[in-house]
Amino acid sequence: YRHLRGVVRRELDRRDSVRRADWSLDHENVAHQEFGDERAACFVGRDDLLDEIEIYLRGNQTTPLVFIGPGGCGKTALLARAAQRAIAEQPPATVRHVITRYIGATSISSDWRQLLEDLCRQIYRVCRLDDQLQRRLAEVAEDDTSAAGSDQRLKVRSQYRIEGDAPALQLKLNFFLQQVPPAEQLVIVLDALDQF
Fold first, then answer.
1. pTM of the full structure
2. d(Cα 28, Cα 115) in Å, to the nearest integer?
3. What is the three-class DSSP state of 169?
């Protein structure tokens, strides 16, 4: 009975932890959306740069698009408007996910490690990597029910677990970016990375 009670308690604690993480992610998304909307509201002109961003997004580039300029020149407002357009103008036959994070807009985005964890959680959610994890676990279970199979399942789970220090989370972010389905486009807008 005590063993079962401990198992149930751990599972309930895990579910509470997942709910808190989901709430935190929702809160973070809203905060950055509002921050971006405020900046985009005062944006005027610069259609040439917005068009360049849209051309970049329609292409198959795998390198980041970076905007550099002195403080106060309008980079944040430009990126906020570009994010709005990227959301509004979905390309045909592609699902576009847009994640915006404005460094310093929230306490989470002010800390490099927390920002990395937040980005990993958001990518995990929008790209439905939990579905991918469940498929991989099912494949492992079909292939091997021995102790080696159990070790393999633990290895697969650890690939998708979001935890660790900043370098570990950087590796996890890179892994998650590689898992984005081919028919989906992931647009990540990060503003003020020079703050780190």
1. 0.76
2. 10
3. helix
Q: Say what the alpha-carbon torsion angle 85, 90, 94, 95 is, to the nearest 10 degrees.
A: 80
Residue 178's alpha-carbon distances to 77, 142, 182, in angstroms, are 29, 25, 10
- Rounded Cα distance, 9 and 3, in Å: 10
Separation of CA 166 from chain center = 15
d(CA 174, CA 186): 13
Torsion of the alpha carbons at 152, 158, 159 and 163, rounded to the nearest 10: -170
Phi and psi angles of residue 40, each rounded to the nearest 5 degrees, phi first? -70, -25
First to last CA, the chain: 50
Which residue in this structure is represented by tokens 């971006």? 36
pLDDT in tens, 146-171: 666 677 888 888 888 888 888 889 89
- Scanning the chain, the segments in alpha helix (DSSP H) are 2-41, 47-58, 75-88, 112-126, 129-143, 147-160, 166-178
Q: In the structure encoding, which two tokens stand for residue 127, read together?
A: 């790209």
Give 24's DSSP letter. Answer: H
Q: Which residue has the tokens 């079962």?
A: 4
68, 172 contact by CB (below 8 A) = no
Quick: pLDDT tens for 53-86: 888 888 877 777 888 777 788 888 888 898 888 8
Contact 184, 96 (CB under 8 A): yes
Q: What are phi and psi of 136, to 5 degrees?
A: -65, -40
In 3-state terms, what secondary structure has residue 108? helix
